[in-house]
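Same chain as my last thread, 159 residues:
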Amino acid sequence: MIFLLADGIDGNATAKGYEKHIRVDAFQFGVSRMVTMEPGNLANREASRPSLSEISFTHKTDNSATALFKDAVTGAAGKTFMFKFVQTGSDSLVEYMNYTLTDCIISGYSISADGDGDPMESIQLSYAKIEVSYHDYDKTNKGASKQVVFYDLTTGTPG
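reply #2:
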């Protein structure tokens, strides 16, 4: 499961520890770099700076619909969005991966529906910094280590 905690935007999730989060149905992100591939000269490949995609997510329309739409049309900036990837633990949900976006702007908003199902919102997020954390667990589901990396688009620095 994926939950989203966004500054000033309440969702309808009721899972313990994730109240008022937005339940996310799909999440997409990618990074690409141009790399030269000259035959016979691969030892000296050159790579460009990374190109980070916007974060895209979809979810069933909930209490967050009006706030997301308002932020999309007004260009509200400076918000933090945290995507929390969770799995079932022995007695509760356990986070194993997070994507935290700072200085977010909603760069795309669309909604689709058919006659039988709930409307689905698709949102695209532009951001200044992205942090990815992964929580490692052993076979007994106990936390072993936490790995954290980031990329700051403002300064062009990884960490």
